[in-house]
């Protein structure tokens, strides 16, 4: 009897021991999957919430809903240095009258406190602005631009109606080279007219191009006329193209910040004189030849108007912009451009 009880006791002991081992093994297997760390959670959250500015491709901490704003900037020698150009995502430089160019500065990622001098509208600048559905800011207008804006072709704020309120005059400069506005006052102008100031902006194409066959080009000259004030120069510093005009560095008037950009896109477009004042009509719809300067190189490209934006193509394939800021130089003839 004692032997039988001892035998049963041994069987129970072995059984309980085996169950304990299985539980231990099970716990070990479960612990083989490492717990999610705070660092992993942060990386996951960063990946899910990473955003970029649509017109520069640069990173931002949150999705931006700032509407694009396009401001007509005076580029007459007496208007230099200008204010706020260093914060523009994109700038178009285009001939107005004679050999004087005007600048269309498009803001989205940054909002400068002071912008100017602000100058009058031209119809082809309105077309370029509409490629970004931008709020168009000007001071004055040509007859063609007046017709367009009054017909509702674009939302606009015109200094003709807000001189001394939203716009102010700088007494150290002579009219018409002394009209300025702040980004805050542009916002007030949008509110006064019932214009939206927030919307999602369609991004530019930002990706790396194959530069295997690109030509080295670290110096660019765009010559709008024989007069020195109409000469534009870019020097590549290894990262950006640093701009000068009329032999002087292009800088911000208030901060002395140099204008330095990642992309210089030169566009050849047909120009025609349309009146005795010397105003022009410029064909921004037909496409044509161009040069794309990036990372110290140049590629011969074609440009196309895609939904109002001038974009580079090569052999029918779209090219991307380098992440950062872009200046687009419009010329009647590519012979006005030299590079080395």
Task: Provide the descriptors you would attach to this structure in a database record.
12-stranded mixed beta sheet; disordered N terminus; 24 strands; 2 domains; 340 residues; globular; YerB-like fold; 6-stranded antiparallel beta sheet; alpha+beta
Arithmetic mean of pLDDT:
89
Question: How many DSSP H or I helices?
Answer: 5
CATH homologous superfamily title of the largest domain: YerB-like
Q: Name the overall outline.
A: globular
Overall helicity: 10-25%
Spatial extent as radius of gyration: 30 Å
Q: What is the CATH first-level class name of the largest domain?
A: Alpha Beta
Largest sheet: 12 strands, mixed
Task: Please render the helix and strand layout as text.
Layout: H1 2-31, H2 38-49, E1 51-52, E2 59-60, E3 69-74, E4 90-95, E5 101-107, H3 123-130, E6 135-138, H4 143-150, E7 156-158, E8 167-169, E9 179-181, H5 183-193, E10 215-216, E11 219-223, E12 231-236, E13 241-245, E14 248-249, E15 260-261, E16 263-268, E17 271-273, E18 280-282, E19 288-294, E20 297-306, E21 309-314, E22 317-318, E23 326-331, E24 337-339
Parallel strand pairs: 3-6, 4-23, 6-7, 16-23
Antiparallel strand pairs: 1-2, 3-5, 4-5, 8-9, 10-20, 11-12, 11-24, 12-13, 13-14, 13-15, 16-19, 17-18, 19-20, 20-21, 21-22
